[in-house]
Amino acid sequence: MSGFIFDLDGVLVDTAKFHFEAWRELARDLGFDMDETFNETLKGVSRMESLEKILQKGNIDASSDQKLSWAEQKNQNYLARVQKMTKADVLPGVLAFLEKSKQLKIPMAVGSASKNAVAILTLTEIKDYFQVIIDGNQISKGKPDPEVFLLAAKTLQLSPALCVVFEDAEAGIEAALAAGMYAVGVGDLEKADEMISGFEGQDPEQFILDPL
Q1: Segment 158-204, tens digit of pLDDT
Q2: pLDDT cut 90: percent of the chain above it
Q3: Which strands make up the sheet holding 3-6, listed edge to edge?
Q4: Which residues bind Mg(2+) (predicted)?
């Protein structure tokens, strides 16, 4: 049986805007601005790697302790916004797709760089659809390293070749392909094996892989 592994931000729920707002708030505190085009380069990337990119953009050098402090500041900015999330923040078509997948008994996991994945899944009331949640608290390498997806497959007790990954970021697509999985890009991601614009009207059965 195939298994489905979902990225969280921008795939299941609309948290991408909160990340952008939180990073921009930090950048402005540091004396410069960032736009949504630059924010695209942060998608799917870990918090510390994102901070490094932002500091590089602002031409700012800092100690490790200072960087950790800024990363925590960003996270607090983000969490303040996330705490207000509800089921309404689940992206269109996702609930129906998860419900049908559950009926088909497809094993499902979340594979996310976010350290707040469990809180977000709980607030939006979709946590119980997933047998496995692998997030930034359990991995040492961020995407495009395949660690998060390989650990999800291992925990689901599935071969990577039988796993379908749904991702909205280039780094995530690269991670899925590096893991030997079938990569479905949510959005315009040319490296993906297949692209969809979103989950509305999508049938989980069309993504079930036949064992080789």
Answers
A1: 999 999 999 999 999 999 999 999 999 999 999 999 999 999 999 99
A2: 89
A3: 132-134, 108-111, 3-6, 163-167, 182-186, 194-196
A4: 7, 9, 167-168
Single out the catalytic residue among 9, 65, 128, 135: 9
Domain spanning 3-14+87-207 has what CATH number?
3.40.50.1000
Q: Is 70 labelled a binding residue?
A: no
Q: Is 89 annotated as a binding residue?
A: no
Q: Tell me whether residue 44 is annotated as binding.
A: yes
Q: Express each pLDDT in 85-105 by its tens digit.
A: 999 999 999 999 999 999 999
Least confident of 20-34, 40-54, 137-151, 195-209: 40-54
Q: Is 7 a catalytic residue?
A: yes
- Token readout for 162 is 């039988």
Q: Say whether 203 is catalytic.
A: no
Q: Please tell us whether the domain made up of 16-82 is placed in CATH 3.40.50.300.
A: no
Q: Is 63 annotated as a binding residue?
A: no
pLDDT of 14 reads 87
Count of Cβ atoms closer than 10 Å to residue 145 Cβ: 17
Q: So what's the pLDDT on residue 44?
A: 75
* Domain boundaries along the sequence of the chain: 3-14+87-207, 16-82
